[in-house]
Every structure is written in structure tokens, then in C-alpha cells.
């Protein structure tokens, strides 16, 4: 089987999962052609495999003048019935301000149609329910391109026209039970008949600790590590405030944060840097920017605790990476995190937006060696048992094979 594998702005800082899933699909006999919307900012490219990935990727937004002319000719050829179906999908439920954007997606959709034909692809799977999903839906209206979607977060986070995006999909996959329920409850008749469940996962043979975990001794630096985009919803500002509170009590907390903002360092990072300066934490908080897996592994290995203070986290691959490495985790009880972390069993959960509560949790786990060791051991076991990187590939393969069975029956 040969399919298109659509990931927007690939390969960016959070895309290691997709690279690993592709390898898992390949091992199961499913060949994937990487397709993306456009290239990410250079400051958001951090992985050692990124250059190879870009060379293998077809970018739908990269259209030359000559290619654009050919695509317009293709558009003219589809005729009035095709135009009606295409523009109906592009404009259905579209806010007026978004109409120019949607119309601009028609040429990338035509490019996708031609790519599917020329590369002999039987299906395209989109790992986004934003613009990439609409491109897939428009390609379906243009040439009956078969596609599917994975929902990685709340529907509202991916913009309007979710009904259109899901209506024509062969199937969908949700990364949590909560999101699967959301697809059915919100989209109702527009939800695909088949909705799979496949949490994101990590490569446990890569994300593992070389030596035993050693809790904080109570003396010297208490080393914290966090990893995530520098975005308000990730709650880094709350974690920084918690660091300030802990240091005010005499605990020598130091924090490393891996990840960059969506503007390549010119956006929310500036807000966080100002906060660090105002709290006089320049020697305690270090921003690493977008870093490769090797640096994440080093940060996890050298830290006593991993903390992610998200206001809302769909599931949390960064949490999985930490747990797989046996680093005790503290996070918030929102979104899909409770499907990953069982409070007091394999990690510690607090309410979001509460630096004081977060500081108390960090101090509690750091000083309770038995609890920290329990989280280290149970966290690793949880990931190995339930959140391996090949789990999503297995589910995608199952859904694709079921799609073909349904086609034969019809």
C-alpha cells in the first residue's frame, strides 16, 4: 500500500513523532510519501533528520508560475458540476474574512490531486484538522481523492468548517477517548462512521534512561526540565513563577525549557524572557530553543523532575518522553493528560494557572523520595505498555485495511 502522509509545515520542532510513525508504517508494509503545506521557519527546525525529511517532502504551497497556469487549466476542465461541488465545499460555513484564504487553497488541492495520480497514491492521511484537512477535502471534491484525518486537539483549535473537513473523510482517528467523543457529539451526522483511537507515542528504545533515576538529595540544585512550544497555553509563565516562589524559600531550583515560539524566538519567548528578568531569575531559568532529540534526552537524564504546566494539553508527547525516560512528571489535570497520568500512581497532577499550587507539588515530589521513585518506575511501565510509537501506525493500518474491505463490499 502506498499513501500520502500530510503534515503541515514539516519538519518542525514537534514533529519527531510523525517521523517515527512513518518508520513504523514502513515496517508494516505501508509506503508513505511525505506531503506538507509549506516549509517551517528555519529556527523551528531542530532534528538531525530534518534535512533528509525536507528533501523527501512535496510542499503543496510551492507552486511555480508555469505550474499554476497548468493547474488553472485543470480547474477549467472539471466543468460546472465540478466547480459547484468544489466551491460549495470551500465556502460552506466559511466566514467572509476567510474566503480569500479558502480560495487560495484550491491550487494546492489541485496539486495534491495531480500528486496522488502521478505518485500512484491510493489515500492521503492528514495529521491536521486545519488548512491541510480542507485541502484534502477540496481534493476529494475535485477528483474523489480518498483521505482521512487525525484529530490531535479540540476541534475549535483547528478553525472553522470542521463539518466539511470530516464529512467526506473515509475515517478519522482521535488521540484520546475525549476527542473521539467530541467528534461524534459536535459533528453529529458529519462525523465519519468509523473513528479510530490511537494515542501518540514515543520510541521507548530511544527514550530510556541509561542509569538509575536518582532523586534530589535535598542539597544543591533541584533540576527541573520542561519541553514544549513557547506559547501562552503551555503555561511556562506559571512554571517560571513557581520557580521564583521556590527559590524565595531557599530551594536552589534551576529550570531548562526546550522549545521555541511560533515566530522563531521573536514572539512569546520575549514575554517569558521579560518575566524572567523581572523576577531576577536569569541564573535559574534557561531557554534552549528548538533542540534535537539528543538534547531532550540529555535534559531528561540530568533533571530530577519534568514539569509541564499546560492550561490545556490534548495528551502530551513531551510527558510521554519524560515518563519513558523514567523522569518523574508533574503536569495539569486538563485535556487528555488524565488519560496518560494517573494522579499519585505514575505522576502528579495539579490544577492549571496556579503557580503556588504548582510550587507546592514540585516541593512535595522532590522531597518524597519514595514517591519520586514510584513515579519513575510506573511512568516508564505506562509508556512501554500503552504509548509506544508504533501504536498509532497499527491503528492507521487497521483503519486503512478496513476501508479497503468496505470498498470491496460496496
UniProtKB/TrEMBL annotation:
Residues 220-381 form the Glycosyl transferase family domain. The keyword Nuclease does not apply. It comes from the Bacteria. Pfam families: Glycos_transf_1 (PF00534). One of its GO terms (molecular function) is glycosyltransferase activity. Gene3D superfamilies: Glycogen Phosphorylase B. Keywords: Glycosyltransferase, Transferase. This is Glycosyltransferase family 4 protein. It comes from Bradyrhizobium zhengyangense.
Amino acid at each position: 500500500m502506498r499513501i500520502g502522509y500530510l503534515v503541515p509545515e514539516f519538519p518542525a520542532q514537534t514533529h519527531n513523532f510523525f517521523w517515527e510513525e512513518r518508520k513504523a508504517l514502513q515496517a508494516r508494509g505501508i509506503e508513505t510519501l511525505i506531503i506538507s503545506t509549506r516549509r517551517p521557519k528555519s529556527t523551528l527546525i531542530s532534528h538531525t533528520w530534518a534535512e533528509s525529511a525536507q528533501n523527501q517532502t512535496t510542499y503543496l504551497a510551492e507552486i511555480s508560475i508555469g505550474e499554476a497556469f497548468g493547474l488553472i487549466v485543470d480547474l477549467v476542465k472539471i466543468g460546472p458540476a465540478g466547480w459547484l461541488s468544489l466551491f460549495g465545499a470551500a465556502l460552506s460555513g466559511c466566514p467572509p474574512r476567510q474566503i480569500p484564504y479558502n480560495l487560495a487553497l484550491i491550487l494546492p488541492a489541485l496539486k495534491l490531486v495531480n500528486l496522488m495520480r502521478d505518485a500512484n497514491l491510493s489515500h492521503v492521511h492528514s495529521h491536521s484538522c486545519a488548512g491541510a484537512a480542507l485541502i484534502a477535502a477540496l481534493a476529494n471534491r475535485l477528483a474523489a481523492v480518498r483521505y482521512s484525518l487525525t484529530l490531535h486537539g479540540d476541534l475549535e483549535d483547528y478553525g472553522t468548517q470542521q463539518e466539511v473537513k470530516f464529512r467526506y473523510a473515509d475515517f478519522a482517528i482521535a488521540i484520546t477517548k475525549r476527542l473521539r467523543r467530541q467528534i461524534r457529539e459536535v459533528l453529529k451526522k458529519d462525523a465519519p462512521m468509523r473513528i479510530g483511537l490511537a494515542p501518540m507515542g514515543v520510541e521507548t528504545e530511544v527514550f530510556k534512561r541509561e542509569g538509575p533515576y536518582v532523586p534530589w538529595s535535598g542539597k544543591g540544585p533541584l533540576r527541573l526540565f520542561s519541553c514544549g512550544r513557547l506559547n501562552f497555553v503551555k503555561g511556562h509563565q506559571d512554571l517560571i513563577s513557581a520557580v521564583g516562589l521556590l527559590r524565595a524559600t531557599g530551594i536552589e531550583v534551576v529550570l531548562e525549557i526546550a522549545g521555541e515560539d511560533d515566530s522563531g524566538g521573536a514572539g512569546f519567548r520575549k514575554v517569558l524572557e521579560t518575566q524572567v528578568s523581572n523576577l531576577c531569575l536569569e541564573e535559574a531559568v534557561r531557554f534552549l530553543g528548538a533542540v534535537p532529540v539528543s538534547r531532550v534526552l540529555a535534559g531528561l537524564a540530568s533533571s530530577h523532575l519534568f514539569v509541564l504546566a499546560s492550561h490545556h494539553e490534548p495528551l502530551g508527547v513531551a510527558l510521554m518522553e519524560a515518563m519513558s525516560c523514567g523522569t518523574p512528571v508533574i503536569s495539569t489535570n486538563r485535556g487528555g493528560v488524565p488519560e496518560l497520568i494517573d494522579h499519585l500512581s505514575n505522576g502528579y497532577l495539579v490544577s492549571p494557572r496556579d503557580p503556588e499550587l504548582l510550587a507546592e507539588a514540585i516541593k512535595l515530589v522532590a522531597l518524597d523520595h519514595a514517591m519520586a521513585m514510584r513515579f519513575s518506575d510506573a511512568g516508564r511501565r505506562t509508556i512501554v505498555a500503552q504509548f509506544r510509537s508504533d501504536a498509532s501506525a497499527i491503528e492507521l493500518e487497521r483503519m486503512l485495511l478496513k476501508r479497503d474491505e468496505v470498498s470491496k463490499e460496496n
